[in-house]
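Regression check, iron/sulfur cluster case 329:
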Amino acid sequence: MPRTVTLAGGADLEGFRRACRALWAEQVEPGRVRWRTGGEAAEALDAGAGPPPSATPPFARALHVPAAFMPLCEQVVLHRDAGRFDLLYRLLWRLQTEPGLRHDPGDADWVRAREMAREVHDDMVKSADGGEAPRSLLALRVALERCRECPIGEHATQAVPGEGPRHARLMFVGEQPGDQEDLQGRPFVGPAGQLFSRALAELGIDRRTVYIGNAVKHFKFELRGKRRIHKTPAQEEAAACLHWLETEIALVDPEALVALGATAARQLMGFAVAVTRSRGQWLKRADGRRVLIALHPSALLRMEPEDKEAAYAAWLADLRQAVASKGAL
Ligand code: SF4
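Current build output:
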């Protein structure tokens, strides 16, 4: 009997992944699955209700996903072709059962998937050229990479978009990528990011459940010898970047935000906020979203050693309000 999987929307990658794990755990072959997206009438298997990892039957083999497959999925799910989920699940299934498939670039399923990914990419580039606001986080990533609306983008290695679930309920916003973030293309992975991750862990927040990004998307620095030293973006540079942050907020649609530092607070609120005076307070944006004001972790790193412990404890207490905030997590 065919299984019907209903995804939350046409580009519900997370739901697709969960469904694939559940289907594979039950060894449901590709030909027995009907994929539907939100809004269409459907019955049966809810993609979000697949068995959790612990419920996976012990005899089921682990699902092995080659590194290049997920970036391909990210693009293919954005295609309009109604058969895209069929194709992706079939490919994933075949990758488990046909060891030589990944080295067969001429395989018809591979060819079609790559073709769809290329069409999606080309559409994104056309939209960016036409000045349209990106309609997905992937499209935003492509648009940021091409952006040169302020001088910062000329010198950075790459743009660093935020990361996290598309509909995270809580969004943290820092200032701009640092040296490590610029090299790795991910936010909050350098020394300040590590302190931030430690704080999240101590607060019981799984970093993967929140959205983490920056107000400015490229790294601004000055060279001192071989070292790249962080430079605060000028107001006009931050202002040029504001529409990207607002697009990101509109796409993620969080219930609450946390401004880490003065640049983030000014960008999110539209006016200068004295962070040391307002830290720990909730402000309200014009769009009704609440913003918790907090120090940027790099401010803690710069403190005198004897002040650090107390400052870290106070920072944690401020951030704890985001956890306590009704409905934020
Ligand atoms: S910092 Fe922002 S506005 Fe400036 S080039 Fe990068 S993405 Fe564009």
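Comparison notes: The chain has two domains: 3-119, 162-324. Residues 39-59 have pLDDT under 50 and may be disordered. No diff flagged against the previous build.
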